[in-house]
Write a structure and sequence with these properties.
The structure is a single chain. This protein is mainly beta. The chain contains 1 helix and 17 strands. Strand 1 and strand 2 form a beta hairpin. Residues 1-5, 146-160 and 168-184 have low confidence and may be disordered.
Length: 197
């Protein structure tokens, strides 16, 4: 523990843990991430929640061989991914009471962020590779539109009159333009899955 110009720096590991990776903190000071158990031969990652008061909750997604939480919102909902025995990984949401919901919009799902309304964004193998999962569980797939891409005709543009963009509100996404994770709307074409901010 050491003092700094901007406040106190606190070093921690969950009880019995080593290799701790703290990946996300919410506005209330709750932190989530993953760690390994000292002397654990199977090298399995475990999720943790460090509450603002400093107490820990350790958790694993059901039937997982490794759990990697990556983001926590202000309500305490956590998203991340876990590894299954078949070698694939799946997305999850852990609600503030500890209930898990698993989801899989495609091969090897990796959520990256959850916003305060419970929308989750991330990536998966395959195309389109991006996804937004609504708080109700509806998943929308999309790919990022590169500069000038909207000027390049897609098959549906020739036959059906162009892109038909739908607005996916409050998607927490990673963008160079926003300099990190932020909550804003994404326009997703309902015909081909391309997207633009």
């Amino acid at each position: 523990m050491a003092g700094g110009a901007d406040g106190m720096l606190i070093s921690f590991d969950p009880p019995g843990g080593i290799g701790t990776n703290a990946l996300s903190i919410n506005s209330r000071g709750a932190i989530t991430g993953y760690y390994y158990l000292f002397g654990n031969a199977d090298n399995r990652a475990h999720g943790f929640l460090r509450r603002p008061g400093g107490t820990f909750v350790s958790f694993d997604a059901p039937e997982s061989t490794g759990t990697t939480p990556v983001s926590i919102n202000d309500a305490g909902a956590i998203t991340g991914y876990y590894f299954a025995a078949n070698g694939r990984y799946f997305g999850f949401v852990r609600d503030p009471l500890g209930k898990f919901t698993s989801f899989d919009p495609g091969l090897n799902t990796q959520p990256t962020s959850i916003n305060n309304k419970g929308a989750v964004t991330g990536s998966r193998s395959g195309a389109p590779s991006g996804f937004v999962r609504s708080p109700e569980g509806t998943i929308t797939l999309f790919d990022t539109v590169l500069p000038g891409r909207l000027d390049q005709p897609h098959e549906h543009q020739r036959r059906r009159g162009g892109h038909r963009f739908l607005r996916v509100a409050d998607a927490a996404v990673s963008s160079r333009r926003t300099r990190g994770l932020g909550a804003f709307s994404v326009n997703v074409c309902a015909r081909c899955g391309t997207a633009k901010a």
